[in-house]
Amino acid sequence: MNKNRISSINGLSSQEGFITSRGKKVWYQISGAESQGIPLLALHGGPGFPHDYLEPVALIGNERPVIF
User: Fold this and answer.
1) Which residue, among 40, 20, 22, has the nearest Cα to 30 in the 3D structure?
2) Do 57 and 66 meet the contact criterion of CB atoms below 8 Å apart?
3) Which residues of the chain have pLDDT under 70?
4) Cα distance from N-terminal residue to C-terminal residue, the chain
5) Res 17: pLDDT
6) 8-state DSSP, 67
7) Is there a contact between 28 and 16 (Cβ–Cβ < 8 Å)?
8) How many domains does the chain have?
9) What is the pTM of this model?
10) Residue ranges making up the domain that contains 34
């Protein structure tokens, strides 16, 4: 996993970068990476489908890591 950037969103730490899967680069973001709860994996509908409706889910990052 290649960590490219660490930042803060709404006071929560956030990491983002790319991983390689089957020869393709896939972007990821982790909100609340230091949180101790069970991680939540949030997936959107795929190419051409908006993902902005998932952005409020990042606020759960104070309880558990949220992986986009």
Assistant:
1) 40
2) yes
3) 1-10
4) 14
5) 93
6) E
7) yes
8) 1
9) 0.71
10) 2-67
